[in-house]
Amino acid sequence: MTHETHDSCDHCDHHHELVVENIDVRYRAVHALEDVSFSTSCGSCVALIGPNGAGKSTLLKAIAGLMPIGAGRILWRGTSVGKWSREIAYLPQREDVDWKFPITVRGVVRMGRYPNAGWWRPFSKADGAAVDKALEAMGLMDLENRQISELSGGQQQRVFLARALAQEAHAFLLDEPFAGLDRTSKATLAALLRDLASEGRLVVASHHDLDTVKDIYDEVLLLKRKRIAFGAVSEVFTEAHLNTAFGSLADGRKEVA
Amino acid sequence: MIDWLLEPLRHEFNQRALLAALLIGLTNGYASAFVVLKKSALKVGSLSHALLPGIAVAILVAGLQDWSAFLGALFAALLIGLGSLAVSRGSRIDQDSALAILYTAAFSGGIILLRRLEVSQEMDEWLFGNIMGMRDGDLWTNFWISFGALGILTALHRPLLMTLFDAEVAATLGVPVRFLNYLLLAILIVVLISSLQAVGCMLALGLLVTPAATVYLLTDSTNTLFWGGSLLGGIAATSAVFIGWWLNLEQGPTIVLLLGAIFLLAFLFSPKYGLIRHLLTKTANTTIDETRKTQ
């Protein structure tokens, strides 16, 4: 095995910082994000919270390089993010994916090795080992030859995480990872995200369920097109801030439920 | 009896037709897996109709030659594909509607124009093909298209599949998604053109959808989907040439009809995804429910 530089950021000699500076995103007539800034670093688990249409998905896509930004800049380890980086993994909403697509769990996870293997080179032993390790970490070894159509919601989410691990990403960007999961799967996923952060990775996830924020995340970005507040959960996740984001807290909770 | 069965092979035009059917069937069958996974059968169908006016204009401008019809068809498909994109971006009309408007208008123009041109082909041949009319030049064109299309599609299999599965994630992994989408569409158009002589522009779509759609009902493996589609396309197309000769049927429509019949069998009898299996499981479940209720 090669040495484990990519295993987690702890092994690298400097801290990995994600800096979002005054970014602005528009689609045609819609002003999706306006002057949003925050910065965080590896080892943190960040929740993006805000009402529907607040720009949570847009922000994740902008960081992933999927969305051109009009103004401002996004820096990862001090350099502007380009169209893609193998260090940044994007995990889409489960409902955005065609789960009937004929492919096995292993096939999806192996896509994470594409930056290594390229257009046509056969997957190497190192690629195979990385895929094995990712499957193992997500508890998917028994399911590796299963069709993705036969997975439960929690398993689907773990397949995405395994792909990001196989990619050897440092930053995980997740769009509503808890949406539609049952109670047990939610608990498992929360524990996995905590593990990833404690290993030194950066986890940024949009999140709907206000009741579980304190248990899962270290930091919160409250968003409603503009940044409303950012900081440690204990400081930012207050009634006053939530009122600004959701109108009034009662309304917010209704919408969430 | 044997003599009668092998009789088609004695004629040179039949040998050519068989070879053409094999090439076209294999290539279209392979490419059809992309059409099915991309869920773009309607779009490809519209583009296949756009080929006809392109050919008509090419003949009008440059006369009927091997390359003029080919280039005209390619140009027309591109023009209508890009035109529909421009209309949908520039107005509130969606791209499917734009495509339908453009291709039906162009197709009508093509029909009117072709009827007035001095060419030996009958209208039927443009619409439904004439595989017996294959010349050596057509065979070579087919060969190079098959060779090129299969070569590129197999070489780029990995990034293409990633793009089809989830274009956004593919893009974040460094796959040139936009380029591959255009490339795939271009290759599909060229493959359509290659089957024009054999099955005509009305039926070309059948060859470019049915083979993989049939195999899709029988397998979960992507490799089987591609190579199975290819094999099915090749077998069906060559068998149809024989059947057409024996029963005195038009070969082009026979190819597509045979593919349709095989699809129907798969739809009914597929062990995992067939209708009968589906109904049986449903009945089994209801019976269990009813037993529970009575207990």
How would you describe what is shown here?
The complex is a heterodimer of chains A (257) and B (295). By secondary structure, chain A is of the alpha/beta class. Chain A folds into 2 domains: 15-85 and 171-182 and 197-257, 3-Layer(aba) Sandwich (Rossmann fold), CATH 3.40.50; 88-169, no CATH class. Chain A has helices at residues 56-64, 105-110, 114-117, 125-137, 153-166, 183-198, 213-216, 233-236, 239-246, 249-256, and strands spanning 17-27, 30-41, 45-49, 71-76, 79-80, 88-91, 171-174, 202-206, 219-224, 226-232. In chain A, β4 (71-76) and β5 (79-80) form a beta hairpin. The N and C termini of chain A lie far apart (47 Å). Chain B is mainly alpha-helical and 295 residues long. Chain B has a single domain, classed as Orthogonal Bundle (ABC transporter involved in vitamin B12 uptake, BtuC), CATH 1.10.3470.10. Chain B is 83% helix and 0% strand. In chain B, α2 (12-38) packs antiparallel against α13. Chain B is globular. The model of chain B has no long low-confidence stretch (mean pLDDT 89). The interface between A and B is medium-sized, with 31 and 25 residues.
Key attributes of the depicted protein:
heterodimer; A: 257 residues; alpha/beta; Rossmann fold; 2 domains; six-stranded mixed beta sheet; four-stranded antiparallel beta sheet; 10 strands; 24% strand; disordered C terminus; B: 295 residues; mainly alpha; ABC transporter involved in vitamin B12 uptake, BtuC; 15 helices; 0% strand; globular
